[in-house]
Protein 1
Amino acid sequence: MECDNDRAAQKKAELVRIAEAAILDYWRSVGEEPDPLRVANIANETINTFVQITPPEKARLECITMRHGGYGGGRSSKSGNLLLNMRKLFTAIASGVMTTVGVIAAPWTAPFAALLLWDRVKSSLNIDITEREAVLLWTMWKNRDLNNYVSEQDLLDLVNSELNSNGRPAISKQQMGDSLETLSNMSCVERTTSIASKWWLCERVNATYT
């Protein structure tokens, strides 16, 4: 079956545009005006690292039009697949593989764009993503255990330490709770029922596109 690589390329370009807009909006919200070329590089590197795009398959539909005595044809596409891999993105940032992220201070620039993409592709809730959600998820990933669980007990101190190290103001327990609820609504994290006071982090999510 022939793959619709043009449609996959269009989908990638669409995701890059969303990421660029998210990064620009984020940095303007914190009083910065980054170089558009740097933003474009971060957006491209984020999509290349975070999203695996499988092209749709082309399917040819044959039809007969008896009145005209000829054959007509049409094309339709089966759905393509998007795999959003948060583990791969965060690992690349932490290891320094994503060199463009370090160009503009805060390490959660790419996670901010990734969260917006996650919401657009997976939850479709159109949630208002803020810096808090990005830094909270980044901190949780840095402090998770081998099973992707993170304890809530010291989470606020860890988040505020991360914010402080990047020149950002601390957040309150209530603000952290609100952000945890946002991430939970997006299915990025899930409160565990079997282990008290712990959260489970979702590594990846699949979605389709046409």
Protein 2
Amino acid sequence: MQDVYESKDKQIVPFLLITSEVSFIGTRNENGILYFQFSPLEKCQEIINAFLSRRAPLVQPKDLLDAVETFRDRIFEEKNRVQP
């Protein structure tokens, strides 16, 4: 899985979730930390660089807020699943 980008970042993950140029593959739990996986790696890196340098294309605020909620929901689901 070398063409996969993984992140747990609370800003990057929601932005990638609403980006049509990459695909959300799933999640991976490592020692209680949930990593979100996207593909292709090169496109993810390109989008993240634009995001961090404030050159990313504009997005619908509602879409981004929905993606933030999805991110949080997945984190809480995983925490609840891991805890007895």
